[in-house]
Specification:
The protein has helices at about 85-95, 150-155, 180-190, 195-210, and strands at about 5, 15-20, 25, 35, 45, 50-55, 65-70, 80, 100-105, 110-125, 130-140, 145-150, 160, 170-175, 220-225, 230, 235. It has four helices and 17 strands. Helix 3 (about 180-190) packs across helix 4 (about 195-210). The protein is elongated, with a radius of gyration of 24 Å. It has a seven-stranded antiparallel sheet with strand order 3-2-9-10-11-7-4. A four-stranded antiparallel sheet has the order 14-15-16-17, covered by helices on one side. A two-stranded antiparallel sheet has the order 1-8. About 20% of the residues lie in helices and about 35% in strands. It is α+β, with helices and mostly antiparallel strands and about 240 residues long.
Length: about 240
């Protein structure tokens, strides 16, 4: 589903797109305003004789919200020939419930994110049959080697692994007295893999540790997904 650019339109507003699973729509009326928000996951701790310290954390997920309307007729100020308003509503609802991420972009800005559709509010307000709506998006990050398929069929670009992929993460954990092998391996590996990948990998880790003589309190277990290397105290197992 996609509108066609209005030839010769004097409107210089940036063009706004939403795509999912190889299909794309252009919003005929881009939002007059939009807001992008992100929270840094910082925290504070109190230490005796020092006081409160600021512990810098990782970035949270971006959120984005905007409102506009789907026109019931081809107004002169539309940026493309609009589809019927409820066709847009139907398409967005299908994408919202598809279980697949979308991609939202605004030409001429830095807004170009893989997203989930967190909230979609729509309705008629003025008797014109125009459908007014608000969309709330949340950034979607591809992890564990997953490829970003939100752009391949729409832009002609090849699938790529997201730059935020967890492929380069090295997970390191310490063995404590109450830990079982399962606890330690789960902390080292479980956070880096999807459930389907994790089961066989954890089983392989169990076997490797058993062959190496096990693990003891105070040992440091590390797992690098890029090389599939499992180490105890920096020695391969």
């Amino acid at each position: 589903m996609s509108g066609l650019d209005n030839a010769g339109s004097a409107n210089t507003q940036p063009r706004t797109y939403l795509s999912c699973n190889g299909s794309k729509i252009q919003f005929p009326m881009p939002p007059a305003t939009f807001d992008v928000s992100v929270v840094q996951q910082n925290s504070t701790i109190n230490i005796n004789n020092i006081g409160e310290l600021n512990m810098l954390g990782k970035t949270g997920l971006l959120t984005l919200s905007f409102s506009s309307f789907f026109p019931a007729q081809n107004y002169p100020f539309c940026l493309c020939t609009p589809d019927a308003p409820y066709n847009y509503v139907k398409t967005i609802d299908v994408w919202r419930t598809s279980g697949k991420p979308c991609r939202f972009s605004i030409a001429g800005t830095s807004v170009n994110y893989a997203v989930s559709i967190d909230k979609f509010v729509w309705g008629e307000h003025d008797g014109t049959s125009d459908v007014y709506y608000t969309l709330d998006f949340r950034e979607y990050k591809f992890i564990g080697g997953a490829t970003d398929s939100t752009i391949s069929d729409v832009t002609g670009m090849k699938d790529r692994t997201d730059t935020n992929s967890m492929l380069d993460v090295l997970q390191s954990v310490t063995v404590y007295p109450s830990d079982s092998i399962g606890d330690v391996v789960g902390r080292a590996i479980g956070k880096n893999l999807s459930m389907g990948q994790g089961n066989s990998t954890i089983l392989d880790a169990y076997k490797s540790i058993a062959k190496s003589g096990g693990i003891n309190t105070g040992d440091i277990l590390t797992y690098a997904k890029t090389t599939n290397a499992l180490k105890v105290n920096n020695k391969n197992v």
